[in-house]
């Protein structure tokens, strides 16, 4: 069953790839553009939608079969949660597409879904038993609602990104171009991380260090990537690897630092190659492809996504969260880092809505806010889970 | 109070931009705009009209959404500060906070501690931020909701032409003779679930007005929520205690004034089966140790009425239940949660007094480590007196034997052993875990360790939270308001037939695409040509201008 579940997810991944291609063709294929430049009524978009729908159905199949295999909702660790977030974005896309029929949204949302699912698969994927604190039906209620809310908010980010690529003036350069390119680079970094981990994984690369940990004790550390940075007093105890260039002090997790160095090196190479091929910033390359998109419409789309996603996120990430916290942790609120960052997400989008409603922050400024909002969500997912330890560290 | 009388005859409060009834721009500012500001329908708001007394100034400060947004942003930034390092309640409680932050996080940790960020969320300034958020919610809502309610109630069907022309969506067309677009439009809009009102050759179709109240409803919810959170500081509203109960023992439930007692029948924890195939890989990675259940089989008793104080109370069984994580036991507003445990705590120790020469036992004693007797008579002239007892033994700084706590984690005794041979003085023996020493010279007798009984101890949190009904009501009202305001939009379409011309305009408080679809239907089914989106048109013109500038 677990095997089947994995295959369904893989199929979903490739359907999202297919959907990316179909939507890209529908947006960039010049032949089908009508007079006013709107890309309406060509069949590639519909095919893309069908592929996205198929991707979602297969992903749902993964979810159901994994649930059957493990006996609990598969949202209990980093792999499962992050994958579910990807699926939720896919679902949110289907909702927003059905309202706005925007092919360009698909062209940008699909690759982001793929990135998130691929990133998830780096974490241990085997089914895990539930610790007592997670044994509650609130697990599926709280976690899925939160992920769905974040997924819909992510669509707001995608639309905001489209707005920025569509409208930023590249001839002037400056901060806006830099930060837009920074978003592109960040996404490439995630891709580079996934690629490099998979590349070494395929060759079965692994090496083991003996080192002195922060308590002065001898310990072993497994490296999944060749060591550029080694641990404190590290000695390779497995043949077939080069020696590390530097040894780090004991208070840094050297395997994570090493992965980080590899990731950034790979991201920079990847970015440089693409940049050389295109001879211009990525976002500038994309701009002419989406010239036919109406900025006003993607702006509204982005706002609509936030307006739909905000209540869902609040319900799942704060209200259901508080109910469960009262049951499992004896109090509905305890200033655990994840709770605080959920509150920060809530406050941020609340500020967004107020700025938009009453201070007229439309268009570009609103789009930047959507980008920051998504950055906060990602921060809460990755950083708060993996770096700031708290009650929610289940990875 | 000065009134502004509109030409339609309606008397508006001072400070009104657009007539509440017909929408006519009333002041110069509104007249000069190409598009009217529809955010609050151009009503007079107290904060925009008066600015004299100190009350006006405070009111105006807190009624500003700009100020509100700043408070939100400051709260957001402040909240994030508290997550840099763990809060004090999450650090181990056996070290002092000052030391802990310095040792774990170095200089930054010290700064964090000195600034009080380790207890930030209960600091006065964080509380002040939350309080000002609450004040802002109340004043900003009142400042808007009252006039908004009035204007939406008094709006007339027939609107001033200046009002219509200054709407974002506006169109006009000459009406071909013999056609009745008004009638056709009425049917179409009715079919699209609009509420229709007519007045002569004027028509207004309105939909989803209740969504305008969403923000105010959710603000009310938030205020109730914050009030609930504040109530915690009143005595009797909130109980947060911990009780440790050994197996087979009954303890009074703290925070209940001795009214309730809890017995721990047994406590156990269960591990996942290592041979479980489903979780084989994960269990292997975790070293095979993943806890499946923490459970206390508990009985709650209530004190019988009329028992004499000071005597052993008469207890009446109230509830018997299994307490697990996620499954608290609840009675009379109190909940008992499984939060901690201690396995195999030493409880009763048995020792024998042995004659060293013959190796014969002269008697056995069982010492309750929580309540040792001072003397154990073994008969035939043999007895043991406990000279000193150290439940958790250590040598203190002066090198004297002492105890760290009263929990018998490492019990040690100095026994005084009396026997017919040593009737007067007895012999002194020091006995502890892995220790058995004669205190003054060679003894004839010794205390020999036989056996120890252990018990599991459960740690339960006792919680009563009378603020929960407020919190829950606030949460529910907030959600209702949020959904009300987010998932519906307030849309209006005005049609006005005048001098053979049809004027029409539309307004949506959000989601203009949906309003455009309404107009598309009017075009397709009633031949009313689509209105101009004056905002989009302006935007396109600007972009074209920009492109031309860029191209030249």
From TrEMBL, chain A:
Principal location class: membrane
Statement: the UniProt record of this protein carries the keyword Transmembrane: yes
Family matches, as InterPro entries: Cyt_c_assembly, Cyt_c_biogenesis_CcsA, Cyt_c_biogenesis_CcsA/CcmC
Gene Ontology terms: cellular component: plasma membrane
UniProt GO BP: cytochrome complex assembly
GO molecular function: heme binding
Protein name: Cytochrome c-type biogenesis protein CcsB
Species of provenance: Sinobaca qinghaiensis
Classification of source organism: Bacteria, Bacillati, Bacillota, Bacilli, Bacillales
From TrEMBL, chain B:
Keyword annotations: Cytochrome c-type biogenesis, Membrane, Transmembrane, Transmembrane helix
GO biological process, one term: cytochrome complex assembly
Residue ranges with Basic and acidic residues bias: 535-552
Segments of this protein annotated with the region Disordered: 530-552
Cellular component GO terms, alphabetical: membrane
Subcellular location, record wording: Membrane
Domain ResB-like: 65-424, 442-520
Residues passing through the membrane, by range: 67-85, 124-146, 216-234, 468-488
Listed Pfam families: ResB
Membrane topology: Multi-pass membrane protein
PANTHER family: CYTOCHROME C BIOGENESIS PROTEIN CCS1, CHLOROPLASTIC
Protein name: Cytochrome c biogenesis protein
Species, as recorded: Sinobaca qinghaiensis
Lineage per the UniProt record: Bacteria, Bacillati, Bacillota, Bacilli, Bacillales
């Amino acid at each position: 069953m677990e095997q089947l579940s994995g295959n369904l997810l893989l199929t979903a991944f490739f359907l999202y790839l297919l959907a990316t291609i179909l939507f890209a063709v529908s947006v960039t294929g010049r032949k089908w553009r009508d007079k006013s430049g709107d890309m309406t009524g060509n069949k590639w978009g519909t095919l893309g939608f069908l592929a996205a729908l198929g991707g979602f159905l297969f992903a749902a199949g993964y979810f159901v079969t994994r649930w059957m295999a493990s006996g609990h909702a598969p949202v209990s660790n980093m792999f499962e949660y992050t994958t579910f977030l990807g699926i939720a974005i896919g679902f949110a896309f289907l909702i927003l597409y059905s309202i706005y029929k925007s092919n360009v949204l698909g062209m940008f949302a699909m690759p982001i879904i793929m990135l998130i699912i691929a990133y998830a698969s780096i974490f241990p994927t085997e089914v895990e038993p539930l610790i007592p604190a997670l044994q509650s039906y609130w697990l599926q209620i709280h976690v899925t609602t939160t992920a769905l809310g974040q997924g819909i908010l992510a669509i707001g980010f995608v639309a905001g990104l489209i707005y920025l690529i569509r409208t930023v003036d590249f001839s002037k350069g400056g901060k806006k171009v830099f930060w837009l390119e920074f978003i592109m680079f960040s996404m490439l970094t995630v891709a580079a991380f996934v690629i490099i981990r998979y590349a070494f994984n395929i060759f079965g690369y692994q090496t083991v260090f003996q080192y002195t940990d922060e308590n002065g004790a001898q310990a072993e550390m497994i490296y999944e990537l060749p060591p550029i940075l080694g641990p404190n007093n590290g000695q390779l105890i497995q043949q077939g690897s080069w020696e590390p260039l530097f040894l780090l002090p004991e208070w840094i997790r050297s395997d994570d630092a090493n992965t980080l160095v590899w990731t950034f090196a790979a991201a920079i190479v990847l970015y440089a190659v693409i940049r050389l091929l295109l001879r211009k910033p990525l976002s500038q390359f994309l701009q002419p492809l989406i010239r036919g998109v109406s900025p006003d419409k993607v702006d509204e789309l982005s706002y609509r996504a936030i307006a739909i996603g905000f209540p869902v996120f609040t319900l799942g990430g704060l209200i259901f969260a508080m109910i469960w916290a009262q049951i499992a942790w004896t109090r509905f609120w305890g200033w655990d880092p994840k709770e605080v960052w959920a509150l920060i997400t809530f406050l941020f989008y609340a500020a967004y809505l107020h700025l938009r409603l009453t201070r007229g922050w439309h268009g570009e400024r609103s789009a930047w806010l959507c980008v920051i909002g998504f950055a906060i969500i990602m921060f809460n997912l990755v950083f708060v889970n993996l770096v700031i330890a708290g009650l929610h560290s289940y990875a | 109070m000065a009134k502004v009388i509109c030409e339609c005859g309606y008397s508006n409060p001072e400070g009104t931009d657009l007539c509440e009834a017909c929408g006519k721009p009333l002041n110069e500012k509104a007249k000069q705009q190409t598009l009217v500001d529809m955010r609050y329908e151009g009503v007079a708001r107290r904060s925009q009209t008066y600015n004299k007394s100190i009350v006006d100034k405070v009111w105006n400060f807190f009624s500003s959404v700009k100020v509100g947004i700043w408070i939100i942003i400051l709260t957001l930034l402040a909240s994030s500060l508290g997550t840099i390092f763990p809060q004090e309640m999450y650090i181990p409680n056996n070290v002092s906070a000052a030391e802990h932050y310095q040792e774990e996080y170095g200089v930054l940790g010290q700064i964090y501690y000195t600034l009080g960020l380790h207890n930030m969320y209960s600091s006065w300034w964080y509380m002040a931020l939350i309080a000002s958020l609450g004040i802002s919610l109340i004043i900003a809502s009142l400042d808007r909701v009252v006039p908004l309610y009035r204007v939406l109630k008094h709006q007339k069907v027939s609107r001033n032409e200046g009002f219509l022309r200054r709407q974002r969506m506006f169109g006009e067309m000459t009406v071909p003779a013999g056609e009745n677009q008004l009638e056709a439009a009425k049917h179409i809009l009715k079919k699209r679930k609009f509420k229709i009102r007519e007045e002569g050759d004027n028509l207004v179709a309105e939909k989803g007005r209740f969504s305008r109240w969403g923000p105010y409803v959710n603000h009310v919810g938030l205020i109730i929520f914050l009030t609930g959170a504040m109530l915690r500081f009143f005595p009797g509203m909130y109980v947060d205690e911990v009780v440790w109960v050994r197996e087979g023992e009954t303890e009074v439930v703290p925070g209940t004034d001795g009214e309730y007692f809890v017995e721990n029948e047994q406590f156990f924890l269960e591990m996942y089966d290592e041979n479980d195939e489903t979780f084989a890989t994960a269990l292997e990675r975790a070293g095979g140790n993943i806890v499946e259940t923490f459970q206390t089989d508990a009985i709650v008793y209530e004190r019988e009425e009329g028992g004499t104080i000071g005597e052993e109370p008469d207890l009446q069984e109230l509830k018997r239940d299994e307490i697990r994580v996620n499954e608290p036991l609840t009675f009379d507003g109190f909940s008992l949660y499984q939060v901690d445990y201690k396995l195999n705590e030493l409880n009763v120790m048995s020792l024998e007094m042995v004659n060293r020469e013959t190796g014969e036992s002269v008697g056995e004693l069982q010492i309750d480590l929580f309540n040792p007797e001072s003397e154990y008579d073994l008969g035939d002239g043999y007895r043991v007196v406990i000279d000193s007892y150290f439940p958790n033994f250590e040598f203190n700084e002066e090198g004297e034997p002492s105890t760290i706590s009263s929990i018998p984690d490492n019990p040690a005794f100095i026994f005084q052993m009396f026997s017919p041979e040593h009737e007067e003085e007895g012999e002194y023996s020091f006995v502890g875990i892995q220790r058995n020493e004669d205190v003054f010279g060679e003894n004839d007798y010794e205390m020999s360790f036989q056996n120890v009984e252990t018990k599991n101890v459960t740690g339960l949190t006792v919680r009563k939270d009378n603020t929960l009904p407020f919190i829950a009501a606030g949460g529910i009202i907030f959600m209702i308001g949020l959904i009300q305001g987010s998932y519906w939009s307030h849309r209006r379409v005005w049609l006005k037939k005048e001098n053979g011309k049809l004027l029409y305009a539309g307004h949506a408080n959000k989601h203009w695409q949906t309003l455009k679809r309404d107009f598309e239907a009017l075009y397709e089914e009633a031949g009313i040509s689509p209105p101009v989106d004056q905002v989009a048109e302006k935007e396109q013109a600007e972009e074209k201008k920009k492109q031309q500038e860029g191209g030249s």
